[in-house]
Each structure stands twice: as structure tokens, then as C-alpha cells.
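Suppose you are handed a protein chain with no further information: no name, no annotation, nothing but its sequence. What can you learn? This example shows the usual starting point.
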Amino acid sequence: MDMNKKSIGIIVGSLRSGSYSKKVAFYVTSLLEEKFSVKILDIGNLVIYNEDLDKDSDAPQEWLGFRQEVKALDAVLFITPEYNRSIPAVLKNALDVASRPKTDNAWNHKPGAVISISPGAIGGFGANHHLRQTAACLNIFMMEQPEAYVGGIAGAFDENDVLNESVQGFLHIFIDSFADWINIF
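A reasonable first move is to predict its three-dimensional structure. Written in C-alpha cells, the prediction is:
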């Protein structure tokens, strides 16, 4: 990561290799890279949080490494599908892992934003708001406007995985606002 630029971590709420969330993450990374250092953080290897395992340096190494990655960030962008009107378990687990111990919450005071996506028409509204609720508890300063609910995502990519112009235009506006939000901090 370029130490002269603010760093953004992108957390993708889907583990599926060809997920729409990952495709959107790659696209927005290309929009952010000119002004920021951007890294997509891997959350698929994090053991489910269990306080019994969280014993200082004896905690799982994946947890300790992830906590350090999050602490080193200047901002965070969540890109997630909606599972059963909420966020995927893997994303909630990542939030929990980096929030512990409570006295050393790695998310604390970071500006953040969320893009929720769905093949359905409401664009992951439930996931977006459940994530915002958790973020408030973790003291992540979530950008309020514009909100990003990308519905109909399955039809937004062509056969070469290129996003249609409408979604590209919306994401440009969103990312410009997110860049402004980050630079307030």
C-alpha cells in the first residue's frame, strides 16, 4: 500500500468466487486507486468468533492479523449481498472479530460506507441497514448519503463482466461522495 495515500479496506460479504459483490468490489477499486491505497481484505479464513479462543496472543493468528489490517486502515467500504434480509454470517463474523477485545476495537473512528447488492429489486436494503446498525455500535462513521442499494445486479453485467453504464454512473457518484467523506477525517 502507498503510504502517501489514505488507505481503504474493502470488505466483501460474499465468499463465492464469481460473486456479484466481488465484481463490484473490483470495479470500485479501479475508481478509488488513483487517490487512495485500496486493498480487498480476505474474511473467508476467519474462524467463527468465540470469546473462549480470544486469549491475548494465543488467539487465532487469522484474527490477530485481521485486527492489525483493520487498525492500519484509514477507511472501510463494505460491499455485500443480502442473505435472508440481513448481512451474510461471514461479514458479521469479521465485524465481531475485529471489534474485540472491546477495549481495542479495530473499527473505532473509521469512516465507512456500504454498497448492498441483490438480484432483486430492493438492492439489499435489509443487509444495508443491518450493517449500519452494527457499524453504529462499533463506532464506524458511516456515510449517510448517497445510499447505495444496487438491485437487479444479475442483469447489470454483460458476458465480459462489464457493468452497464447506468450502474457505472451511479457507482461513480457514490465513490466520489465516499472520497469526499474519507477526506473529512
